[in-house]
Amino acid sequence: MAAQAGKTRALVLGGGGPVGVGWEVGLAAGLGAAGVDLADADKVIGTSAGSITGAKLAGGADLDELVATSGSMFETSAASTGADQIPEGSMGKLL
Questions:
Q1: Residue-wise pLDDT tens digits, 20-34
Q2: What residue segments make up the domains of the chain, in order of their start?
Q3: What percent of the residues of the chain are helix, what percent strand, and what percent coil, each to the nearest 5?
């Protein structure tokens, strides 16, 4: 889908947790199969699940692989990854 001259396109994705990611990935795959490439957006904005999906799409992730792996994306909890063990001071420096 080509943008009209002088116009830009944004992809705005909402939240919804793991179900939201699954929904948005499925929707992106369906649109992709119909010839609409959401990764062609000039700007991608997302919150929560939308930020995960948007980052994957903007990064050029393969839609078929995203569909196949979105169910296992949330199998590991934050506690088992160690993400909850980062001291606040370090997190501030990281951001």
A1: 999 999 999 999 999
A2: 16-67
A3: 55, 10, 40
